Prior knowledge:
Elements: E1 8-9, E2 14-15, H1 16-22, H2 26-36, E3 59-65, H3 71-74, H4 79-83, H5 91-94, E4 118-121, E5 126-129, H6 133-137, E6 142-149, H7 155-164, H8 174-182, E7 192-196, E8 222-224, H9 242-263, H10 266-289, H11 296-302, H12 312-324, E9 329-334, H13 343-367, E10 374-379, E11 383-384, E12 401-402, E13 406-411, E14 419-421, E15 423-424, E16 431-433, E17 436-437, H14 438-448, E18 458-460, E19 463-465
Parallel strand pairs: 3-9, 3-10, 6-14, 6-17, 7-8, 7-9
Antiparallel strand pairs: 1-2, 4-5, 6-13, 10-13, 11-12, 15-16, 18-19
Helix pairs in contact: 1-2, 9-10, 12-13
Amino acid sequence: MNRQCTGYDSANGMSRRQMLSRFGLGLGAVALAELESPLGAAETGPALPALHLAPKAKRVIYLFQSGAPSQIDLFDHKPLLNELHGTELPEEVRRGQRLTSMSGNQASLPLVGSPYKFAQHGESGTWFSELLPHTAAVADQLCMISSMYTEAINHGPAVTFFQTGSQFPGRPSMGAWLNYGLGASNANLPSFVVLISKNEGGQPLISRLWGSGFLPSEHQGVRFRSGEDPVLYLSNPSGIDANSRRAMLHRLRELHELQLERTGDTEIEARIGQYELAYKMQMSIPDVTNMASEPEHIFKLYGEDSREPGTYAANCLLARRLAEQDVRFIQLYHRGWDHHANVPGRLPGKCQQTDQASAALITDLHQRGLLEETLVVWGGEFGRTNYCQGKLAASKFGRDHHPRCFSIWAAGGGIKPGITYGKTDPFSYNVTQDGVHIHDFQATLLHLLGIDHEQLTYKHQGRRYRLTDVHGNVVPEIVA
């Protein structure tokens, strides 16, 4: 291999930058440093030495319902669909908008009303279907956003869009941006934790969804699993005690520091920090994941599933415990909401898995004085169609992907409670008032944490990137 074409000379232990400097190419070294430095030569120190505005939230718990729950059957009450059940989707409603390949070639697009009863709840009068009685009971704590919309029409790009601000892989996730911008919030636990409900089929979840993208690797999410080893490869091997591990880390750090001095590779600094955090987590993670200290009434609050590690309910309870330890971004994923067929046979089960625990999390945070500083978000990547995918039967129907409008809810952390923001048309097909784009939602989330979304940037390959790309506006009407 021609060493002149590599970034590191293994024979001399020099980086390309050091080689240029040593050979007297000072200007070349300066130019190369500017190209390679993510923040530029003039920018040093933490990404955000000070917040842009007073924060209303300290942390986020994001309950992501992967697969896209049907807004029509849960939140967006549309009695007209019941009146027109079985009739054709009007062209003046569709307006020629594209459909997925799964229903785009259907000869007929029959409208489907929801088979579930709807009622208004709380002083706010927020609409919920009968499938969500527990969530309905905390209606006055919630801000229902009924006018979300996205450009993505398939799961992979849509989930990636919500989590990273781009439909294309390779961008940092929301949790990584916060970790990069705000720094660590707990010296003994990761700032960004990922929890995935076990034994739930559905669309695959890829680690890049909680990855750091082009940000330094220490900002990526750390996935916790159920079982004896919540974090893979964290426990000491058999025969290795804590003192031996500590001595090994001391020697390893010395070697890494020597290599850092020779190469200037910032990833080595990240590796040193990750080893040190892993050592601390050997004590902190078993403690935070041990539910034995939780009283009986808390298990009853979250539901019987909360006793079984790895379930959605248990992960909601673990999220509260992580919030108590100041973990900044806690991402839950619950799969199985992709109901292209047999909505009546599948949707009630997903609601039973999630309804009680989601509401319990709000109640539990509130009673502990944590809800005011914790932003909780519940929702999927897009909505479902008002027409039937496939053949419409008397008691069985499916709903296809629908990016034009859908609902999510948020609570706590500076969100205005007890309101419904935005409106859709009587068919739940188009937004008619106060649309909220994915980037608007992300801009508002950052705003609640004290960050101006236009100012949290990272230089990569010659341009500055941000979570909201070149779009997004804060939605002040939902901020308390």
